[in-house]
Design brief:
mitochondrion inner membrane; mainly alpha; NDUFB3; membrane
Length: about 80
C-alpha cells in the first residue's frame, strides 16, 4: 500500500475518517473503552456482590452444623412434665 507520491506513508483519508465522530472508524463514545474496566473481572457486579459478605457462606455452614450438633447431642435426655 505504499504510495510513491507520498513518502511519509500518511493517508489523509484515514485521518479524516478517524477525526469524524460519525464515521464507522471511530469508537463513538470516547470514554467507553476507558470505563470498560469498571465492569469486568474483579469489578463485575457479581464479584462485588460476592465480596460484600466475605464470610457468609462459611458462617452459614458452621451455624447449621452447630445447630445440628446441639439438637442431636446436647438435648436433655429426660422429659419434665409439670
Amino acid at each position: 500500500m505504499f504510495n510513491p507520491n507520498n513518502p511519509t506513508g500518511f493517508d489523509m483519508k484515514t485521518f479524516k475518517a478517524a477525526a469524524n465522530p460519525t464515521s464507522s472508524f471511530s469508537l463513538g463514545d470516547p470514554w467507553k473503552r476507558r470505563e470498560a474496566w469498571r465492569y469486568t473481572g474483579p469489578f463485575s457486579r457479581w464479584s462485588r456482590l460476592r465480596s460484600a459478605f466475605p464470610g457468609l457462606g462459611i458462617a452459614t455452614v458452621a451455624f447449621t452444623a452447630y445447630c445440628a450438633y446441639e439438637w442431636a447431642f446436647l438435648s436433655d435426655k429426660h422429659d419434665e412434665h409439670h
